[in-house]
Task: structure prediction
Amino acid sequence: MAKIYAVGVGPGDPELLTRKAERILRSVPVICSPTGSAEASSYALSIVEEFLDRDRQEILTQLFPMMKKGPELEAAWQLAAEQVAERVRRGLDVAFITIGDPFLYSTFLYLYRIFRAQYPEIAIEVVPGISSINAASVAADLPLGIASDRIAILPATYEDDYLRRTLTEFDTVVLMKVSRVFDQVYGLLKELGLDRSSAFVRRVGAPEEEVVYDLSSLVGQKLDYLSLLIVRKQEIP
Ligand SMILES: C[S@@+](CC[C@H](N)C(=O)[O-])C[C@H]1O[C@@H](n2cnc3c(N)ncnc32)[C@H](O)[C@@H]1O
Result:
């Protein structure tokens, strides 16, 4: 029986793929790239392009409407799941590629839920990947945690009060999906005196990688969706 693989492809550098991920991506007949943005989908594909053979492998790009929930989105997921299930029933292994790690805020997780509930006979193997968080902390030279540090990871789109509380209570805070709300978050960091202990990291691992410590230079700019902020309060002793 064919199966589904959810393969983490790391944050951008093809050398950061695991050997397992590379082996699976070279061998499966179908590669799926499910995302909410064409930009992220082509980015994920660009990471693994050198391992693919487009003459032999089918590349299925599954784009989902950029909305949190609703019947339109649910219908899109159902259709995507059916497309994949149909291939698996024909005996074809399918690999979903996800930027970073599949179990960290990835679009694949919505499909995972549908497969587990509606297609329990299809086996799913998840292959962990190096997340953008791990790679960004190294790129910015900001370790995530030491000894008993408390680390929080959350979307920057949370309301101000919740962000303020998290920034106050944790030693390191990673703010994902920061691009659309950056100016607001910057205001909050400044108010809390944390704007100088933070780094903005864009497209880590890719040739366009950028690490910015002077956050004021980013205010009012249109920022890349593939970017995050690391706020680290303590110096490493
Ligand atoms: C839907 S989440 C996917 C996270 C991914 N599964 C991971 O393990 O890194 C998308 C968010 O991850 C972050 N991200 C993903 N790839 C990135 C990269 N190469 N550089 C910086 N941030 C990235 C950004 O905050 C982006 O808005």
